[in-house]
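Sample pair:
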Amino acid sequence: MSTYQKHRKVILPVLLFPILILLWEFYIKIGNVPNYLLPRPYDLFVSLISLFTKGHAMKHIWTTLKEIFVGTGIGMMIGLVFGYLMAKIRIVEKMIMPFIIIVQTAPKISLAPLFILWMGLGIESKAALVILVVSFPILINEVSAIRSIEEDAYHLMKVLKGNRWQVFWYIELPYSLEMLLSGIKLALTQAITGAVIGEMIGAKAGLGYLLTLGSETYDIKMILNAVILLSFIGLVLYLISERIEKKALYWKAVDQRVIG
């Protein structure tokens, strides 16, 4: 495998980035776009550096990350537990699923003011919104994963006299791992959206707070900087989850090499 093929996921975006910057600069000059509507790339970069040196950017980044991590951790646990119960006990699914669908179909931006009213402007209300958006994909993937396990696997464990814990550890967990990790990747991207919505409705800090502050003060640079930082956080979290998925599912790559 050549160096390009091995690292093309990094090489291609790196090559594309300066082209996008040049197109951005070209569009501003040709269209005579005023600075208050779309700043030049250099001016935006300077304002981003200034945000870190003078604007307490790390405080806002850490606030948003804390909301994401706390909400995602709790949301994953809730999704896993209820997903497993729903997959194993049909009556639980029939009782809970209608309420889950009702909550999930409600626009999250309409629920954010309620959470803020009930829990205040602190991390609790934002984490609650993250829990809401994270738990659903985890729950659905857990139900699908458990129910996709073939009956023969359970029959084998029954023949081997495996107990409930052994069935879970050797059958249900490995079989469902791939779908669970896919659900976690999706949940992480939605967690950012949940945290930002909560911060935009009401917060004392966070990148969503910067978006609202930039909009209220007509500061396009602050808005764009917040968007850039949120996009970067989303990319990093996605790459980390993808890396974990590859490590956890290393046997798939081995199988492909053997078959190939």
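The chain has one domain: 51-259.
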